[in-house]
Every structure is written in C-alpha cells, then in structure tokens.
Amino acid sequence: MKSVKIVGVPEHFNLPWHLCIDNGEFSQYGIDLQWTDVPEGTGKMCEMLRNDQTDVAVILTEGIIKDIAAGNQSVIVQTYVQTPLTWGIHVAYEAPYQTLNDLENKTVAISRFGSGSHLMAVVNAHNNNWNTQNLKFEVVNTIDNAVVALQNKTADYFMWERFMTKPLVDKKIFRKIADCPTPWPCFVIAVRKQFYEENQHVISQILDIINATTSEFKHIPSIDKTIAAKFDIQLNDVEQWLKSTRWSQKKLDQKNFDTVMQYLTNLNIISTDLEYKNVIK
Fold first, then answer.
1. In whole angstroms, how far apart are CA 96 and each of 102, 175, 241?
2. Of 2, 27, 47, 165, which sits 20 to 30 A from 149 (CA to CA)?
3. What is the Rg, in whole angstroms, of the alpha carbon atoms belonging to the chain?
C-alpha cells in the first residue's frame, strides 16, 4: 500500500473524498489515503505543504497560488470545484452594522494570514473601493473562535463560506450582511512538488477515483439528506448549494490562473510573476 497524506477543510465540499475512502475505492488500487481535517483552513494547509506534513491539499485557489508565489514548493494538479465560492460577510447578530458600507475600516476576523478569509477580505475591500491599507485583522484560526471574537467585539465581521455559516445565522449568532463570490473557481488540488515528481502515477490514480465520484455526486440517492445531517445544514439550503455547485475534473485553465494572478498582483498581495506551466501540472 502506498501511503498518501491529504488535508482539507471539514466541509460539505469534501464529502466525495470521504465517500471514496469509506467505500475502499483508493485501497482497491493499493493507495492508503490518509485524510486529515484542517478547520483552520487554507493558511494552515499551505504551512503543512511547506513543512512536508501533507502530500496533497484540497485548498482554496487564491490561497495556494499566493503561497506558491511566496516560495511554497507545490504544484496544482487539478481544479476541484469549478464554481466560485460564495463568501458570506457576517457580523454578530446584535451588532449595530446594517450595510456593507458600515464595515469600512472595521476589524475583520480571519483564520490566519494567507487564508481565504484574509485574501477575500482584501478583495471585498477592493470591490467596494475601500482603502485596503486601512484593513485591520484579528487572527482567530477557526469558526468557533470567530464567534467569540465577534461577540467580544475584538473583531467586527467575519467572511466564510455562506452555507457553512448558515446554521449560525439561523441560530441568531451571526447576521449576514452581504455575499462576496470569488472571481475564479474556488477549490483546487495541490501536491508537494517533490511528491508529485516521484509519484505521478499515484496522483493520476487518485484523480481518476475522485473525479468518477464528483461527476456523479449530485445523483447519489438522498445525498441532500446525508449532507444536511452530517453538516447540520437545513435541507433547503443543501438543495440550493447543490444546484449552485459544479465540481471539476479538469486542470485550472490559463484564463482563471491569470485572473487570480492579476487580482493578487493588483492588490499588492504578491510581487512574484508566476508562470502557468510551472504551477499547473
């Protein structure tokens, strides 16, 4: 058996991986795929790739490209989710803020620097013509800590995938002010460059297996009820999410890669000019 370490966020997007693992689909091909949930998100997963703590990561597109530009020796082997990620912009339920403009120059809770919650806060500020230099951040690591930060007023708002935070909105812990969709496909599959170069056949086999499942995922009987129960999301919200989400079985294309690079460069998040052929394998 070939052991492969893989990480991803504990969210509904990654249920296909768990179904494949539970069904023994990887082990049938001699692959011991060892999944680890990383609730801290993309920034933590970038660190794990850098430190050889994982071989593969299912990770936010903008986050891994930013970290590769900063020296992370990883490559992107495929787009995992083609559709944008819709980031909900949340405040504490009792907070005085009513509109997006009320949050200008306020403190945003982020999981960590370099994470999607950090980078998309910058994108959101840019989209609203705010001065991105005035952004203030409070590192909270997890959603649970974000709840505490907003309730204790050490941060004013928090951006996270809207359906994962919907239960907190339903419970009147958070209140959603607005949405901010990514201008690119949201999740990609990244691999440590050394591991990729030494195990291309294994990576190809893993992609074949996960792609077979994601291409049929929406048609699995009662998958909506399974997701609702597993992730504590209302069934009608799951149905809406399934309709709006499209998995990919293809490489990240040049156009979307260039879009991410242009955003990150224009916002002074990266200064390195990456070449598509060196990053996308």
1. 9, 11, 29
2. 47
3. 18
